[in-house]
Amino acid sequence: MNAQISFLEGTFSLIHIPLDLYPTFLQPILQVLLPQGGDDSLANEVEGLSIDNKHGFLNISITPVECSVVCHSSWAKNVFEPVIKSLPRDVSRPVTISKDTYLILSVEYGAMDAGSRMMELTSPLALAGIPIFFITTYYSDFILVPSKDRHTVVKALLARDFEFIEDESAFVSPTALSHSRGKSESSDPPSTPPPSSVAELQVRTFELLKKRNVVPYISSGLSLVQCAGRDASELIDYSRRPGSSRQPMGNGHRNSWLDHVDTKLYTSLISVLAMQPRFLSITLALEDPPSLLLDRTLLNAFGDSLVGDLEGDLVPIFLDLENLPLEATGIVSGVAGKLVDEMRMTETGVGGELSYLSTARAGAVILSNEQSMKAMEVLKPLLEKE
Description:
Layout: E1 3-7, E2 12-17, H1 22-33, E3 57-62, E4 67-72, H2 73-86, H3 89-92, E5 96-97, E6 102-109, H4 114-127, E7 133-136, E8 141-146, H5 150-159, E9 163-165, E10 167-172, H6 198-211, E11 217-218, E12 224-229, H7 263-274, E13 280-285, E14 288-295, E15 306-308, E16 314-320, H8 331-343, H9 345-348, E17 355-358, E18 362-368, H10 369-383
Antiparallel strand pairs: 1-6, 1-10, 2-4, 2-5, 3-4, 3-13, 6-8, 7-8, 9-10, 11-16, 12-14, 12-15, 13-14, 16-18, 17-18
Helix pairs in contact: 1-2, 4-8, 6-8, 8-10
């Protein structure tokens, strides 16, 4: 099976924090990163956590453009909103929490290269006029879609021969099937007619980016590593080691959240977040170990708590999308699709190195050092003013 797609439980908010206000919001960021359920004072915030206090989904990204947070809507309302309201209005005005909530599609894939995967997943939604955010992690891909568009998302996937598995919360890709179904006969059209083909989608995307003065750029000297924390099953349970004096908590109290995570990893994360890193993206998802995309100069701060290709040399190409509305469609599919087409990535195999990170006000196409130079040669002429 090449791809299995399912809706995660809950609704999520997208938060934009300007870099100059990052120190002001470090405390709520840490409060969300380190959830401590079971306390009556946090009764509102713990919605969106599992029974062992793990997030269903959380992404915290600090980039040269902004700090961006994707968290359960209850955390946005009960942790971030009070901080925003406590600030003078002229100070807090640049901080935004998305007015609409989002659903998250979790994607588990098989043998497809990353370039093909992105196109298969994003083009049906873009052609249906659905705005999305895309987050590539070490283990999975995640797509944010507006909650109000759930019905249209389902129809768009059905119309492209995705099929349900079990119920309407999960789909399999058409390449995974031995047969296909008929296309959906109807779909609610968006207010603006969507493009009729991927080629038209790409043309529209670059026309919009050019009109809004979006210029691709590489941040000098910034090299990234895509990696992960260790699987919880690999961690040593010191409370059960012979001779240990630690005992499970009694009196009806459940174990602490700390009993289920790698404390070395989280200590390192706190240390790095306190420094306001140049680039760090953390993704927590219930079914996966923590996933990180980080400035390779930060690796020493994590010691041996990370796994993956720690010798990687990835370069992000940034697209500052501040002048575009959140409702803009086709950005991910249009940009990634153009790069795949122009660089013949799926034929040479380097498509496996293509990934994408959407943040609240920006997008980052992430490639190997060599491929990033080629990608800039493709993107710059398309976005230069005549």
